[in-house]
């Protein structure tokens, strides 16, 4: 049973979202009542690729890493989610399975809604549907931008381009530096850059020697 305080927080969260802020009050009440609140510890899996798509998650606080694999077990997709994200977006209207894995890379708080309820809200509210389409368009734009930044045939340049993209997308001002507020593994940088972990390690060391970045405890800071 959700406490009245949590219920109020859930409703405020939805009202602040462009997707749901203009919902009729009866729909907002129904959506809030169907929502569960959960705290997830860093390192915990939220759902696995191929599992039945039963719930949709709203990221209230924290950061999530999502990955997808092919039949051979090779990573084919990797991205990071920040607060206010809705996931998964892919399959949210008619998907039957989760298309990727999701893992908490910080302690986080999520709101969980049955996918059937989300679909009902989206389908029966035009403004909500338009807002979701716009949200998906922004995701496509960010993904396309990252791909465009990593088209160089030079692996070192691709690593630098990925770092620049991560700085622009996730970097937060911390004193005199901009820091990505969650850990990123070197092997993740390798996947994003389309190169080997060894190459990424070499480039990161060079950038540290040039006093352009710091990589400490898997946290990247841009000087």
Automatic annotation (TrEMBL):
**What Pfam family does this protein match (any one)?**
cNMP_binding
Q: Which part of the chain is the HTH crp-type domain?
A: 153-223
Known InterPro entries for this protein?
Answer: cNMP-bd_dom (IPR000595), cNMP-bd_dom_sf (IPR018490), Env_Response_Regulators (IPR050397), HTH_CRP (IPR012318), RmlC-like_jellyroll (IPR014710), WH-like_DNA-bd_sf (IPR036388), WH_DNA-bd_sf (IPR036390)
Name the UniProt key words of this record, in alphabetical order.
Answer: DNA-binding, Transcription, Transcription regulation
Any one Gene Ontology cellular component term annotated for this protein: cytosol
The Cyclic nucleotide-binding domain covers 19-122
Which SUPFAM superfamilies does its entry note?
cAMP-binding domain-like, Winged helix' DNA-binding domain
Q: Which domain of life is it from?
A: Bacteria
Query: Do you know which Gene3D superfamilies this protein is assigned to?
Result: Jelly Rolls (2.60.120.10), Winged helix-like DNA-binding domain superfamily/Winged helix DNA-binding domain (1.10.10.10)
- Write down the SMART domains for this protein, in alphabetical order: cNMP
Question: What GO terms are given for molecular function?
Answer: DNA binding; DNA-binding transcription factor activity
Database matches in PANTHER family? CRP FAMILY TRANSCRIPTIONAL REGULATORY PROTEIN (PTHR24567), HTH-TYPE TRANSCRIPTIONAL REGULATOR ARCR (PTHR24567:SF74)
The name of this protein is Crp/Fnr family transcriptional regulator
